[in-house]
């Protein structure tokens, strides 16, 4: 610390007054305690024609003293506006009309007070609902909701129909076996022993007759 004090002297680089007690922020810039307090209050009293960002003010502990910037009203409005492409500004909750310091804070707020579609988040979409019933309607319209889990007062939703089918096969095998919508159509034709391409197969299955119908997915183990 003595080397730093000798390099800057005993004058505060902001107010140029003698420094009785040095104050250091995370940026390691020495100032006097009076200026540090002013910086933490954004110094708006000294510049009444300027305004400061209230969202940044709430998160002052995250900012370094050298990051405090005075802004005119027009610049403040631009600063607070959220740019989703550049990831700059302060994101807004459309329901509460409250701005947050960064996107992670907004997501935390939404998870606590609102309902966020995590499946849409994986695709880069930010879809939020005020009530849970709206989220459930969205699951049924845009994704794949398990009806068996819903009947059991549970929520299981999947991004693709294949994942839903795998879930039903593992968790609800009896319902799948009795659900005609989950059955696959099959057609088995008779193969004669004179067909050279199937002679070796006929040694295992000597008599196969033509059958048309459906088979349940949970018992369908033949692939073609």
From TrEMBL:
One of its GO terms (molecular function) is ribosome binding. This is Uncharacterized protein. Keywords: Metal-binding, Zinc, Zinc-finger. PROSITE patterns: ZF_RING_2 (PS50089), ZINC_FINGER_C2H2_1 (PS00028). It comes from Schistosoma mattheei. InterPro entries: ZNF598/HEL2, Znf_C2H2_type, Znf_RING, Znf_RING/FYVE/PHD. One of its GO terms (biological process) is protein ubiquitination. Pfam families: zf-C3HC4_3.
């Amino acid at each position: 610390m003595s080397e730093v004090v000798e390099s800057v002297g005993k004058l505060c680089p902001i107010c140029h007054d003698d420094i009785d007690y040095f104050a250091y922020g995370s940026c390691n810039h020495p100032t006097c305690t009076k200026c540090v307090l002013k910086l933490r209050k954004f110094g708006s009293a000294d510049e009444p024609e300027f305004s400061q960002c209230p969202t940044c003010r709430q998160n002052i502990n995250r900012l370094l003293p050298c990051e405090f910037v005075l802004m005119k009203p027009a610049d403040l409005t631009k600063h607070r506006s959220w740019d989703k492409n550049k990831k700059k500004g302060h994101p807004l909750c459309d329901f509460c009309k409250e701005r947050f310091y960064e996107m992670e804070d907004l997501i935390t707020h939404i998870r606590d007070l609102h309902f966020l579609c995590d499946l849409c988040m994986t695709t880069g979409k930010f879809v939020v609902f005020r009530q849970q019933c709206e989220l459930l309607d969205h699951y049924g319209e845009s994704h794949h909701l398990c009806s068996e889990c819903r009947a059991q007062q549970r929520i299981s939703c999947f991004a693709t129909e294949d994942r839903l089918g795998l879930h039903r096969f593992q968790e609800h095998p009896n319902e799948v076996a009795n659900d005609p919508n989950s059955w696959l159509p099959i057609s088995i034709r008779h193969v004669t022993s004179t067909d050279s391409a199937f002679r070796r197969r006929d040694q295992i299955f000597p008599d196969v007759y033509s059958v048309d119908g459906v088979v349940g997915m949970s018992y369908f183990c033949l692939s073609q």
